[in-house]
Amino acid sequence: MTDDLDAETIEFAHRMFDLARSGAEDELAANVDAGLPVNLTNAKGDTLLILAAYHAHPETVAALLARGADHTRANDRGQTALAAAVFRQNAEAVRALLDAGADPDHGDPSAAETARFFGLPQMLTALGRD
């Protein structure tokens, strides 16, 4: 698919993924508001939401969710944004995702399985699975 995109477009997409990783929610939100697909996905299947959750940026997670980011999407390894937030033990991002309707049992591994595997009882409690 990237064969159809010019270098400038690819560089722009990389920059958007970097914004999600760094938690630059204002700039990222402005780009989504201007037409950037909120569910933009990289070559590994990571969405902007998954990257923001994995890099522990709950404000960015909330901004993306408010703009319609799909919390059910899983990357190529079956991981969801909720599982990423649990792995990073970011209670604020976990709460935002749960409030948006994320399912603790969705994904492979799911958020609940991730919390159990890594021995994260506080995350199991946050997920309502203690």
From TrEMBL:
Task: Check the record and name the Pfam families matching this protein.
Answer: Ank_2
Q: Does the keyword 4Fe-4S apply?
A: no
**SUPFAM superfamilies in the record:** Ankyrin repeat
| Spans of repeat ANK | 44-76, 77-109
UniProt superkingdom: Bacteria
InterPro entries annotated for this entry? Answer: Ankyrin_rpt, Ankyrin_rpt-contain_sf
**Alphabetically ordered keywords of this record:** ANK repeat, Repeat
Q: What is this protein called?
A: Uncharacterized protein
- Source organism per entry reads Micromonospora mirobrigensis
What is the taxonomic lineage of the source species? Bacteria, Bacillati, Actinomycetota, Actinomycetes, Micromonosporales
